[in-house]
Design brief:
Elements: H1 13-29, E1 34-38, H2 40-49, H3 67-74, E2 83-89, H4 101-110, E3 118-121, H5 129-150, E4 162-164, H6 171-177, E5 181-183, E6 189-192, E7 203-204, E8 207-213, H7 241-245, H8 265-269, H9 286-289, H10 298-303, E9 307-309, H11 313-316, E10 338-340, H12 341-344, H13 349-355, H14 368-382
Parallel strand pairs: 3-9
Antiparallel strand pairs: 1-2, 2-8, 3-10, 4-8, 5-6, 6-7
Helix pairs in contact: 1-5
Length: 384
């Protein structure tokens, strides 16, 4: 069936309450740190304001490139009711998985040892936490469908429940609109836990975000509705550690003006100024450059230390940086993320791709040449 011909079924009040209850139960059992349901009446205008209007929208001519239409179709948003937005804590280190002979040989050469300069993969990328998030959501979907069927409720099959993490959807804006947490001065989400699991910190900025679109509509019971939106920097207090720590001055420490002047009331509260509007200058962010080959701006070269991929300087100094201390096995593990810079600076494209196959760094938009350049820059900065 063509997705455009798919009609989103509607659950009655009792069935909707049961599904919401089972959904939250299995999300917590899957180990997510925070979660919330966001009704279509909230997420659709948010996407519209961020440039993802549906093709039939009155203001669609604002988007001549068609990018917004591709986003709408790409994620089958016509067939989506509420969205479940989740946050998953990641770990600073992950156990290295078994490797084939070629990869084992590369790892033996590339793993940092002795006093030689090392180059680092940022903590969020030392396991493929985006894939882990999607896999856990897939398991949640399967269990919710099974539970509902036992109660005589037939839900759409798993292929209609779409799961995303690190996607083109504005996941950060959706998370804030759902009340999962607040934007910190480092422009990242500080999540507040929803879980009742013992020993969890009340907040954490060491999270990846995910979205699960539900292929049916229902009235969300009050106890399962999104939480109150937290203003930007509301969990930061007077702390400005990330601003002081950023070596390239990418953080401004103050939000810009309201991005959504056409909205009002509660809906306006749920349309937060995020990303580029939250006091963050991408052109001065080291992480922005780690995946793309080419000459680096002089300000970035000057601020560079030993980054191979990503940069978490502004996270490590954050009082809310509370990574998972007991991670389960995750795909694409990279151990402690440390590699010998002199090895990475000389490995060819094929070797780089073999080394990072199945990891967060195994993406078409991450150029092997960029990783070699980053390792070489680490050597140069160390005086080696």
């Amino acid at each position: 069936m063509d997705l455009k011909e798919w009609r989103t079924p509607t659950l009655d009040r009792e069935a909707g309450a049961l599904v919401a209850r089972r959904l939250f139960f299995h999300v917590e059992k899957a180990g997510f740190y925070a979660w919330a349901l966001l009704e279509r009446a909230t997420w659709e205008p948010l996407l519209n304001q961020l440039g993802a209007a549906p093709p039939e929208a009155e203001n669609a001519n604002q988007y001549p490139s068609g990018a917004s239409f591709r986003l709408w179709d790409r994620y089958s948003l016509d067939a989506c009711g509420p969205m479940l937005v989740v946050a998953l804590r990641y770990a600073s280190e992950t156990l290295l998985p078994a490797a084939d002979a070629e990869r084992r040989s590369l790892l033996a050469r590339a793993e940092a040892c002795g006093d030689g300069p090392i180059t680092l993969v940022a903590k969020f990328a030392r396991g493929n936490w985006y894939r882990e998030c999607i896999d856990r959501l897939q398991a949640v979907v399967k269990r919710v469908i099974e539970d509902a069927l036992e109660e005589g409720i037939a839900l759409p099959p798993p292929r209609r429940w779409h799961r995303f993490s690190n996607s083109r959807l504005p996941e950060k804006a959706l998370a804030i609109a759902a009340g999962i947490g607040a934007i910190g001065r480092n422009s990242l989400v500080i999540a507040r836990t929803t879980s009742s699991a013992p020993g969890l910190p009340l907040s954490s900025s060491a999270v990846v975000l995910g979205v699960l679109t539900l292929p049916f509509s229902f009235e969300i019971p009050p106890e399962f509705r999104h939480r109150q939106v937290m203003p930007s920097f509301s969990l930061c207090g007077t702390c400005q550690a990330c601003i002081s720590a950023c070596p390239s001055g990418a953080l401004l420490g103050k939000p810009r003006k309201n991005m959504f002047p056409s909205l009002s009331g509660e809906l306006e509260e749920r349309m937060p100024a995020v990303s580029g509007s939250a006091g963050f200058r991408r052109r001065l962010c080291i992480q922005h450059y780690t995946a793309t080959a080419g000459e680096l701006p002089s300000a970035i070269v000057q601020a560079w230390s030993n980054q191979l991929y990503g940069c978490d300087i502004c996270l490590e100094c954050c009082p809310h940086f509370n990574p998972d201390t007991h991670p389960v096995a995750v795909p694409g593990a990279l151990g402690n993320g440390k590699f010998a810079a002199h090895v990475l600076a000389t490995v060819d494209d094929e070797g780089v791709r073999a080394l990072f196959k199945g990891t967060t760094l195994d993406q078409r938009w991450i150029e092997p040449e960029a990783l070699r350049r980053n390792a070489a820059l680490t050597l140069r900065k160390s005086g080696t």
